[in-house]
Design a protein that fits this description.
alpha+beta; Thiol Ester Dehydrase, Chain A; 14-stranded antiparallel beta sheet; 14 strands; 21% helix; globular
Length: 337
C-alpha cells in the first residue's frame, strides 16, 4: 500500500487530503509504477465550508464540483507517477459525471464533513506499455455514508495533435461567428442568490433569453468571459478553459432554468446529477454561451418527481463557441422541499 498526503495532487483546490494507492502487484509498490491494468486508490479530505472556487456560498449543500475535481487531479497524478504517461502529453477531459444518491448526506451541518472516494482507474489504448487515456469511476461517501458516484475519462494528446485540434476548433468558431452565429443577447445579470452565491463578482452567466423556434422552450445564457477567466488558476494547463468552468456554469444555469421553467426556489434547489461529454476543445479567447432545454417531461405537463416525491427537472445543456458545440451536458436539478 502506497500512501501520500498533500501536495499530491494539487493542494490549491483540494486543501489537505490523503491519497492511498492499493497496488495490484508487489512490483507496483517497489517500483512506484504499475502494469497497464486497473488500479485502485482511496482519497479522503475535509469538504470545504464555502464554495471551493469562490467562497461566499449560500448553498445548503456540499458541491458535486469537489469530488469531480478531486477525481480529475488524482487521475493526473496517477497518470504521471504510476502509468508512465510522459509529461509531454497534454491531458484533456473527454467525459465526466457525478450523481447524488442520498441527499441527506450532502446537506451542510454545523460540523466539518469528511469526504472519501473509493477509486478504480483503468488505462485505455495502451501503446508500448503506456496508456493514451484513463477511465475512472468512484464511489463517494460523506462521513462514512455512501451517497454518490463520480466518473471521468481523460485522454493524453501529443502536443502537435493537441495544438492542431485547438487551431481547427478556433477557426471553425471564428468562421461561424463571422456569419452571424455569435453570443445570445445579454438581457442582464441575475442576483448572486439566484445562482447560489453572495457576491455578484461570482456570477458567471447572464439572465436567460427565450429561444427555440421549433416549438420547444429553449433558454440561452451568455457566459461572462471576464468572470470565467478568474477560474484559470491551474499550473498544469494555464491556457486551457478549465473543466470546472463547465461544471460551475451548469450549476448556475441549472438553478436559473429550473426557476424559469418550473418555478423552483434556488435556495432550496441542488444540482443532483451531472453528466458531460466534451466534443472539442474550448478556446479561452472566444465567446462562450450555453443553451438549455428541459429533457424528460410528463405528458400531463406536471413536474417530474424522484423516488422520495421531491420535484426534479431534467435539463439538456449545450456549450457553444459560435455554432461549434464544445460540450453537451445532461443534468438534474432537485427541489429539496
Amino acid at each position: 500500500m502506497d500512501t501520500f498526503t498533500a501536495p499530491s495532487p494539487s493542494p490549491s483546490f483540494l486543501g489537505a487530503h490523503h491519497l492511498v494507492h492499493r497496488p495490484a502487484s508487489p512490483e507496483a509498490f517497489l517500483l512506484k509504477a504499475t502494469e497497464p491494468i486497473r488500479q485502485n486508490f482511496a482519497f479522503s479530505a475535509e469538504l470545504p465550508e464555502e464554495h471551493p472556487l469562490f467562497g461566499g456560498s449560500v448553498s445548503r449543500y456540499h458541491d458535486l464540483l469537489f469530488p469531480l475535481e478531486s477525481l480529475r487531479q488524482t487521475m493526473l497524478f496517477a497518470a504521471r507517477r504510476y502509468f508512465r504517461v510522459p509529461a509531454s502529453r497534454h491531458p484533456v477531459v473527454a467525459a465526466g459525471s457525478a450523481e447524488i444518491t442520498r441527499l441527506d448526506a450532502w446537506r451542510r451541518g454545523d460540523m466539518r464533513a469528511g469526504i472519501a472516494l473509493k477509486i478504480g482507474m483503468t488505462p485505455l489504448d495502451i501503446v508500448g506499455g503506456v496508456p493514451r487515456g484513463l477511465e475512472c469511476e468512484a464511489a463517494v461517501s460523506i462521513d462514512g455514508e455512501r451517497c454518490g458516484t463520480a466518473s471521468a475519462r481523460l485522454v493524453f494528446l501529443a502536443q502537435g495533435v493537441y495544438h492542431s485540434h485547438r487551431e481547427a476548433g478556433r477557426r471553425q468558431s471564428e468562421e461561424s461567428m463571422a456569419t452571424g452565429h455569435g453570443d445570445p443577447a445579454f438581457p442582464g445579470v441575475p442576483l448572486p442568490e439566484q445562482v447560489g452565491h453572495r457576491d455578484s463578482r461570482n456570477v458567471l452567466v447572464g439572465l436567460p433569453e427565450h429561444t427555440g423556434a421549433d416549438g420547444h422552450d429553449e433558454l440561452a445564457f451568455s457566459i461572462d468571459a471576464r468572470a470565467a477567466a478568474e477560474l484559470r488558476f491551474e499550473a498544469d494547463a494555464p491556457d486551457d478553459v478549465p473543466p470546472m468552468l463547465f461544471r460551475e456554469v451548469s450549476r448556475q444555469v441549472g438553478l436559473l432554468a429550473a426557476a424559469e421553467l418550473r418555478g423552483f426556489v434556488p435556495s432550496h434547489a441542488v444540482l443532483s446529477r451531472w453528466q458531460a461529454s466534451f466534443r472539442s476543445l474550448a478556446e479561452p479567447g472566444l465567446p462562450l454561451h450555453c443553451t438549455v432545454r428541459e429533457g424528460v417531461r410528463r405528458t400531463d405537463g406536471r413536474v417530474c418527481r424522484d423516488a422520495a416525491g421531491r420535484p426534479v427537472v431534467e435539463l439538456r445543456l449545450s456549450f457553444l463557441q459560435g455554432s461549434r458545440v464544445v460540450a453537451r451536458v445532461s443534468a438534474s436539478v432537485l427541489q429539496d422541499c
